[in-house]
Design goal:
- The structure is a homotetramer.
- The first copy, chain A, contains ten helices and no strands.
- Chain A is an all-alpha fold.
- The first copy, chain A, has one domain: Tetracycline Repressor, domain 2 (Orthogonal Bundle), CATH 1.10.357.
- Chains C and D meet through helix 1, helix 7, helix 8, helix 9 and helix 10 of C and helix 1, helix 7, helix 8, helix 9 and helix 10 of D.
- Chain A binds a DNA duplex through helix 2 and helix 3.
DNA sequence: TTTTAAGCGAGACGGTACGTCGTGTCTTGTT
DNA sequence: AACAAGACACGACGTACCGTCTCGCTTAAAA
């Protein structure tokens, strides 16, 4: 698994400049407008040097998304917060205790904020396009991109359940999917004001998650 | 606006066979693997005959998806039910009165059922890819595809609100987005059992939508 | 064998402008310096339009050589004289009777003159390069390029033999090869003054071809 | 000029195995099909080790051809016979006195014999391709390859002239070119039986070279 | 014995051309 | 007019080869 020790080692400069070039072009024109010759040229690198690392355009974009060079704040930051304080993403502060189930409101406000950033929208669209191109890797791509945050959200909700704030029979995975789904949908559908109503949805979810008090 | 009366009329056979060919290829390999030359050949038609009807690949795919050729039942049928009882989509039964807010459970169960069909998943992926391809038309495409169902859902929820089953300050649009978003997310992310937990999510939403009774 | 009557016919303008572009680039930089993208661009044509006609660079060059767009005078003119008064090569005057065997001197003087022309040198080098690239077609290429002139030369020598000016046991094919060979060799080897000594060689050949008068 | 005495000396094994690999690949597929990575791999050597010795592909091919690795006998042997009894080419026997001008017949018979060998044909083609590749070096390359033999031939002819067997005004260089030219032409043009007629041509040349005795 | 200079295997690198593919338009003759 | 057929301009794709470079390691002469 480790890189062969023989021969000239791959240039880490090239790694970086390729990903940056890909990010820039992605932000400028989206997935379609990105082409590998332009990436290579902007990165000051030969096309083959790109292909040596990523076997196709969609792999490159996937790489850029996963490396976190895209969207250094917002959704991606949320995504990696507390999970993999790695590449280019400064770790978010540990979340404090909250009086509501898992700080879901806070969570979704952050999500709403991230929806407004064009860079985040571009990232998500790039992710979707790369995943569409690459049937096999799609699941892995989404998993790696949303996984850490998603798990964090589920843990947070579970902690709320343990504190008795969330009903025990709730499917917390489904709630997490709803949270990510609404963000994805609003970005892909280019809904005008993507953050609108998020707060209200959070309220509904929080209320819906609360333990049932009456027979209703 | 009406078609010119002069000259040879357009072949309706061609319309149908093109859409069928597009559907087949879409199901076989997805959006990327579909190319217009192959569509034309399989339809037994010249390429120009396709372009005379749809101005681009993404429009053709949108057309195939919206015509319901791709998925005569399921999501697409839900989508157009009651709205545009048109091409190839048999109208769903009128929904009966329900004792819960807007029959949301029933709704989401149908949605969940439609998620299980590979053909529907393919439809949604094709739609997403077509929208990604065509930045300007993306909003319109999503609107055309989800619009009718979405409006219906909102109406149903509004009826529930009028009956006092749904709190008045709830952002019903946001709820609708959550419903569609979760479906979209699960399909695009290739989540194994896309329908799992939908019922439970519906319960949460229903409960969350209920009027607040106390201080909570 | 005739071109299919259906569909848009191939543009003869493109045929011509591609060959002209190939010729120009060949004259400017030789075989190596010619690349198909440049040919297409200069011809105002898409690369695929070139490939539709010639399946590779060497085929294109072969085509250019054979079409006679290269070297409209000199060797090529000699080559096509009396044979195929076609593309761009004005037919040479019919040769008059001569007092020496087949006018070999005259022939070789023309050959010598053609050796001085850079365009001819370029043509021959292009021919050699294309033939080298294309093992199977090499024989055909040389045959079609030199064939007509070569046959003409042989006929001329045979006429001389019939008039009793050339010994009957001489292998006239071998003489023809010597004539073409010396030209080829001097061009490929970039011999400084390619025409030097040709006249003297002609004399030797003429004398050598004369019927033996004595026992020697 | 002599190799620096410091450092690790160059491997003579590498020299040999590179030339052998080059020869093999040349015989298998010709100049075009030979690529340096394959040469290096087959020679069990790094690419740089090749480039340390020959500065380019054409130089390597020239080297392989000139070293006689390609054709230890035949044309190459003729070429270097008596001149540079060097690398891999065993010297030909000293030629005996002949009763005809310079033993031209004998010479050309040997040449004809060498034409029959596919390996020699490949050599010549490789040489031509290497020369075509390297415009500046072409003259030098031909000179190095044909020079020694050519000079020998001219000397032989001069000796004949000195003995009064060859007319004094004959351009012997031109004759030599004709001899090499016909060989080159027949090989490059893939003429079926390259050796045919050579003997007869020799007779013609010999006769043509003989001093003029009468009014002709 | 330790430097030091060069050779060497491996393989990445910049560059350039290759030949293919897909989109959307255009041009024939035919219906 | 629409249609079948297929050429066309455009532009991206992924591959191949050239000749250079950069690693870590080896070899042998010089210090």
């Amino acid at each position: 698994m480790e890189p062969s020790k023989r021969g000239r080692p791959r240039s880490t400069d090239a790694d970086r400049s390729i990903l940056e070039a890909a990010r820039d072009l992605l932000l400028e024109g989206g997935y379609d407008a990105l082409n590998l010759a332009a990436v290579a040229e902007r990165a000051g690198v030969a096309k083959q040097t790109v292909y040596r690392r990523w076997s196709s355009k969609s792999h490159l974009v996937a790489g850029a998304v996963l490396a976190g060079v895209l969207a250094p704040s917002g959704i991606a930051a949320v995504a990696v917060a507390g999970a993999d304080p790695g590449v280019g993403a400064e770790a978010a502060e540990p979340r404090e205790a909250s009086d509501e189930p898992g700080g879901l409101h806070e969570w979704m406000r952050r999500l709403a904020a991230s929806l407004e950033s064009p860079a985040n929208a571009a990232t998500v669209r790039a992710l979707a396009a790369a995943a569409a191109d690459d049937d096999d890797d799609a699941a892995r791509l989404y998993e790696r991109f949303t996984g850490p945050t998603r798990r964090l959200l589920v843990e947070v909700l579970e902690a709320g359940r343990d504190r008795g704030e969330v009903r025990t029979d709730a499917d917390l995975e489904a709630v997490a999917d709803a949270v990510f789904g609404v963000a994805l949908y609003r970005i892909l559908a280019r809904i005008d004001d993507p953050a609108a109503g998020i707060d209200s949805l959070a309220t509904i979810l929080v209320d819906g998650l609360a333990p049932r008090t009456a027979t209703r």
